[in-house]
């Protein structure tokens, strides 16, 4: 992992206008449920016990590499009211180092950079935007794959690009919601999501450990 992404870690995202979210990097993703309701289950004895919706969220995340090219999964965890995961983009067709703006570097504890009181950090989008594809292994139905809207030059400029972090997360959220509703479960995501672009190997390991240890430290979690 370290060799594959040597010199390809990136700075923390603050909705960087100069950043193309298709670029090769490791991205730390956090998505919360609506009103941080415990749709996914509960922590018992420092371990996560999934609800049926939690099982869906877990399965569909692991299906992402089957529906998006050049994507690897880092550590991932489903918590009662949010998910944490690392997505690693490694697409050989994407521009490399010399085309990427450095932007501003922000240091700090992971917990402080994931402040649930702020609903607009990082790269995020509105769920009302059309889903491009659904990451869905659970008997997909035609309605899981909404038809794209008519092409418009202006919309094309501002719409998330295919196989970007935005479209990958949008598809994951859409598929999770559709499957939960189809099975009769009440469920909604928070409209936005958080991302941090991982800068280096130390940050990668710290974030990986944070994700792994999240259930054991649930009582200390900002999303508790």
Give a written overview of the molecule.
It is a single chain. This protein has 224 residues and is α+β, with helices and mostly antiparallel strands. It is 23% helix and 19% strand. The longest helix has 18 residues, at 165-182. The radius of gyration is 17 Å and the shape is globular. Mean pLDDT is 75; it is low at 11-15, 97-107, 118-150 and 153-158.
Q: Give the averaged pLDDT, no decimals.
A: 75
Q: What is the string of helix and strand elements?
A: EEEHEEHHHEH
Reported for the largest beta sheet, the result is: 4 strands, antiparallel
Helix content: 10-25%
Secondary-structure-derived class: alpha+beta
Write the layout of secondary structure elements.
Elements: E1 25-33, E2 41-44, E3 47-50, H1 52-62, E4 71-78, E5 82-89, H2 110-113, H3 153-158, H4 165-182, E6 189-197, H5 201-213
Antiparallel strand pairs: 1-5, 1-6, 2-3, 4-5
Helix pairs in contact: 1-4
């Amino acid at each position: 992992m370290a060799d594959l992404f040597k010199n390809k870690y990136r700075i923390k995202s603050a909705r960087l206008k100069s950043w193309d979210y298709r670029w090769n990097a490791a991205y730390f993703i956090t998505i919360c449920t609506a009103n941080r309701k415990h749709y996914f289950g509960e922590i018992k004895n420092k371990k996560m016990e999934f609800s049926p919706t939690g099982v869906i969220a877990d399965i569909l995340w692991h299906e992402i590499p089957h529906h998006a090219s050049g994507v690897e999964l880092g550590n991932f965890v489903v918590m009662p009211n949010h998910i944490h995961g690392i997505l690693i983009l490694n697409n050989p067709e994407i521009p490399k180092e010399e085309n990427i703006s450095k932007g501003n570097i922000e240091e700090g504890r992971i917990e402080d950079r994931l402040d649930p009181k702020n609903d607009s950090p990082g790269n995020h989008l509105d769920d009302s935007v059309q889903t491009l594809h659904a990451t869905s292994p659970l008997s997909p139905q035609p309605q899981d794959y909404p038809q794209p809207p008519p092409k418009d030059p202006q919309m094309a400029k501002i719409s998330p690009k295919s196989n970007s972090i935005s479209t990958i997360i949008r598809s994951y959220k859409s598929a999770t919601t559709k499957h939960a509703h189809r099975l009769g479960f009440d469920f909604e995501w928070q409209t936005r999501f958080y991302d941090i672009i991982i800068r280096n190997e130390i940050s990668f390991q710290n974030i990986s450990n944070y994700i792994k240890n999240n259930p054991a430290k649930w009582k200390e979690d900002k999303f508790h």
